[in-house]
């Protein structure tokens, strides 16, 4: 059995902490077993490892999330990177071709596809094998996990079971689906055995490979990647699930929750205050999550979420917080904070001058033992000022030490990298006529390989 975790989306419902590069699954707002901050994806990855499934698990993601995934899960995580953001059908099709053509996975192998950020107990992953057993026993095209509802939710989708299936059987046939019903309808469906649809499903690899052949789409991974931008931008539900001849579902009666909005996420955050701030005794049911260096004070407001990051500040009633995505539909802003495999950066200032020059100032943190890629930029000059720590710089093939107080000028087209010998903090000032993150050409990632390039 192989597992594909779908990691994508911009997570605008958890703005301003989430953005196009740091989606909701990367926010370190939960606590791990050791009491340290933990993101949703780190929690899921820990649970997968505890279930002995890590070596069988892949993460399908967009290119913008590759760096943060390596940073949070480690460099040995198996990633299947989309050339561009499409939808779930193209993403799963790309993953299937990777398993088939690059990994040599058997066509009879069961593939489990699931979101990267479900909030579940560890037993959930131990029971994923139920899907494989349901496929084998039912001869269905697809097998889904349906969660036993604990209340008539209007926010979730529902799986409607076959009328004659026993509730305690190993699986049930699926006669249909219903998205976000009214409360009364949800109550009636639950009484008839309906289950919450948690977006977890399985199929035999040959099922999807045959669909690609029928659609005259590539089954070789490299060719699929080349044609990726031409694939239909459509969900797996519409393209595959709704057309499947036979679908089975297995019942899961453990804890499951979607933490996709502030009102649901704060239910699992045990501290009312994260970061600098004060909450008055007259304030009830409020949460403050502050990533800024200035304090936030909340006085007399109840059942509110106050979230602050370099991307913005949100003050909202918890019940209305899911609407923030609609509020931001017309907002276009570059991410002001990003995590990378080597550390993180925060944008401190951005200005455009009358002569067309753009100036962007970042505070960069590189963890000890990590390095930037060997890279160059075509559109900008950079000036680095070292605030803390020490490192080794490579600049156009020359290597030298870098320490507190040093100032380094990096003209455009200059090839450069740095290895942090200890935690390193740098103020970087970029100057150019177009300052974009895409203005980067990476020549090498591993430090040993960078050193070899300098010696030749």
From TrEMBL:
Mannose-6-phosphate isomerase type II C-terminal domain residues: 340-444
GO molecular function: mannose-1-phosphate guanylyltransferase (GTP) activity
UniProt xrefs under Pfam families: MannoseP_isomer, NTP_transferase
Limits of the Nucleotidyl transferase domain: 3-269
GO biological process: GDP-mannose biosynthetic process; polysaccharide metabolic process
Protein name: Cupin domain-containing protein
């Amino acid at each position: 059995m192989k597992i594909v975790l779908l990691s994508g989306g911009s997570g605008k419902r958890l703005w301003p902490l989430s953005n196009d590069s740091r989606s909701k699954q990367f926010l370190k707002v939960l606590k791990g077993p050791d009491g340290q901050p933990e993101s949703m994806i780190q929690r899921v990855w820990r649970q997968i490892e505890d279930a002995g499934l890590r070596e069988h698990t892949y993460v399908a993601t967009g290119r913008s999330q590759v760096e943060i995934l390596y940073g949070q899960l480690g460099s040995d995580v198996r990633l299947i990177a989309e050339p561009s953001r499409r939808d779930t059908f193209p993403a799963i099709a790309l993953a299937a071709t990777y398993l088939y053509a690059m990994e040599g996975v058997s066509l009879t192998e069961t593939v489990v596809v699931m979101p990267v950020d479900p909030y579940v107990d560890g037993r959930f992953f131990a029971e994923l094998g139920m899907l494989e057993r349901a496929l084998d026993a039912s001869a269905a095209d697809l097998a889904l996990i349906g969660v036993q509802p604990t209340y008539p939710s209007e926010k979730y989708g529902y799986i409607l079971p076959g009328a004659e299936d026993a509730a305690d059987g190993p699986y049930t046939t699926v006669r249909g689906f219903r998205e976000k019903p009214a409360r009364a309808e949800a109550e009636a469906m639950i009484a008839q055995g309906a289950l919450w649809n948690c977006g977890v499903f399985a199929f035999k690899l040959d099922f999807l490979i045959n669909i690609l052949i029928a659609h005259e789409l590539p089954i070789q991974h490299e060719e699929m990647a080349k044609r990726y931008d031409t694939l239909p931008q459509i969900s797996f539900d519409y393209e595959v699930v709704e057309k499947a001849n036979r679908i089975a579902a297995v019942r899961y009666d453990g804890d499951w929750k979607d933490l996709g909005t502030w009102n649901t996420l704060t239910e699992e955050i045990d501290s009312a205050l994260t970061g600098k701030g004060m909450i008055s005794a007259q304030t009830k049911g409020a949460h403050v999550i502050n990533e800024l260096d200035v304090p936030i004070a909340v006085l007399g407001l109840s059942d509110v979420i106050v979230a602050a990051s370099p991307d913005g500040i949100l003050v909202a009633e918890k019940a209305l917080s899911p609407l923030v995505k609609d509020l931001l539909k017309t907002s276009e802003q570059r991410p002001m904070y990003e995590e990378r495999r080597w550390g993180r950066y925060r944008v401190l200032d951005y200005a455009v001058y009358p002569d067309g020059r753009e100036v962007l100032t970042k505070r960069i943190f590189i963890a000890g033992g990590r390095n930037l890629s060997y890279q160059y930029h075509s559109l900008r000059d950079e000036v680095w000022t070292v605030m803390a720590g020490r490192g080794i710089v490579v600049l156009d093939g020359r290597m030298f030490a870098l320490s507190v107080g040093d100032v380094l000028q990096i003209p455009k087209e200059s090839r450069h990298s740095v290895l942090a010998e200890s935690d390193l903090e740098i103020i970087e000032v970029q100057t150019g006529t177009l300052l974009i993150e895409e203005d980067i050409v990476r020549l090498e990632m591993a430090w040993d390989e960078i050193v070899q390039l300098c010696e030749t």
